[in-house]
Amino acid sequence: MTDDGRAVVDAHIHQWDPFTTPRVVSGVAKILRRAPFLLPALARIFPRSSREFVGDPRYLLNAYLPGDYRADASPARVGTVVHIEAVWKTKTPIGSVAETHWVARGAGRPLRRRPDAR
Known about the structure:
With 118 residues, this protein is α+β, with helices and mostly antiparallel strands. It folds into two domains: 1-16 and 64-118, no CATH class; 19-63, no CATH class. 34% of the residues lie in helices and 10% in strands.
């Protein structure tokens, strides 16, 4: 919440489940869930710049769903979010729109247009 009581707009969030959705890392995540001892060796094969950009790769191996976000963001009184696509694997350029539908269903609300959208 802002000092004047207005709700916050979080302009960049990701929702993520590498086990039930088609992500670029889904195959690796499924393997590492069964064999987590492979993670250090796998991490070392990537260039240092990639490792520094990603940081701790374990976050890629765990789901981060709307309920997780609500719990994390609850102290901030977030009123609006902008979901950013998170490497949804698809064969068509427009296929990643399926991720937006997945997020909307996971949030417990149907996807709907804003009243002022044309």
